[in-house]
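TASK: fixed-backbone design
INPUT:
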């Protein structure tokens, strides 16, 4: 990636403002950090408000019109031919997602955080060294590309037919369903201490609950919440064995909402109460 030109712009005016153009050899990256805008590109009209991120390919005219009194945006004209970048179909799909894509996800938050960091680079003392600035922005943009491609693939996957969802990659890799299930497993492994709901899980991979439960059980032999419970129980055993934490503290650290529910689940799993398990030296009832 080589930056040809950039601009970090803020307008506060009730007057209509338009900008745009066409770049024969360069992509344009347009990050709307705040305000409402209308972007016209390749016969598409996008009306959205910041934060929003758009990509435009070479030789495609575009026009940006501000709709709110105040708005801020960063544009970067860059040569991408020597770097792995988004395909035209991925760019079109991503730009479409900018219309009202407000559902929270880690990947989307990471895209916005990274673009804000890039915007800060252009406003910092680093901007006086064009070579350093170019390398930093190129590195950050590669991360954005990976995240954007991931979000686009999930969006396409959510709209795919079941037979397509189950199809494996040509190289024998994991199917999209397997990748989605593993993504949820990693999410639960990282956030088992939180109050995770079914909506939290379905929002991450855009599947309806019944389908998610079915494919998760087919692949892992248990439902998502059975897997989550196993993570919490394993964490509880570790705390009981290796620390002097109270049962109440362990409840808080393992994501359960009450000590009574935690104790009931623990006894159903191991045959003894958490306190008795600790007194037994880390042994369940059937272990003697």
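OUTPUT:
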């Amino acid at each position: 990636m080589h930056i040809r030109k950039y601009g970090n712009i803020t307008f506060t005016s009730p007057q209509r403002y338009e900008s745009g153009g066409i770049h024969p050899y360069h992509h344009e990256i347009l990050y709307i950090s705040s305000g409402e805008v209308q972007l016209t590109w390749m016969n598409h009209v996008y009306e959205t408000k910041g934060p929003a991120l758009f990509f435009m390919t070479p030789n495609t005219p575009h026009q940006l019109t501000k709709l709110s009194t105040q708005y801020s945006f960063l544009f970067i004209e860059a040569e991408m031919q020597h770097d792995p970048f988004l395909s035209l179909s991925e760019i079109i799909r991503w730009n479409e997602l900018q219309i009202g894509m407000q559902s929270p996800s880690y990947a989307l938050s990471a895209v916005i955080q990274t673009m804000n960091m890039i915007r800060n680079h252009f406003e910092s003392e680093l901007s006086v060294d064009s070579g350093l600035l170019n390398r930093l922005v190129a590195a950050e943009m590669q991360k954005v590309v990976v995240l954007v491609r991931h979000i686009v693939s999930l969006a396409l996957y959510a709209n795919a037919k079941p037979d397509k969802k189950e199809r494996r990659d040509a190289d024998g890799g994991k199917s999209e369903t397997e990748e989605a299930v593993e993504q949820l497993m990693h999410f639960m492994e990282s956030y088992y201490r939180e109050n995770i709901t079914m909506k939290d899980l379905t929002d991450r991979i855009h599947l309806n609950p019944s389908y998610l439960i079915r494919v998760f059980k087919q692949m892992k032999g248990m439902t998502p919440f059975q897997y989550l419970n196993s993570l919490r129980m394993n964490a509880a055993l570790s705390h009981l064995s290796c620390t002097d934490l109270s049962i109440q503290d362990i409840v808080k650290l393992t994501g359960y909402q009450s000590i009574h529910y935690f104790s009931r689940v623990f006894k159903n799993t191991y045959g003894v109460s958490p306190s008795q398990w600790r007194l037994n030296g880390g042994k369940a009832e059937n272990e003697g």
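COMMENT: The mean pLDDT is 85.
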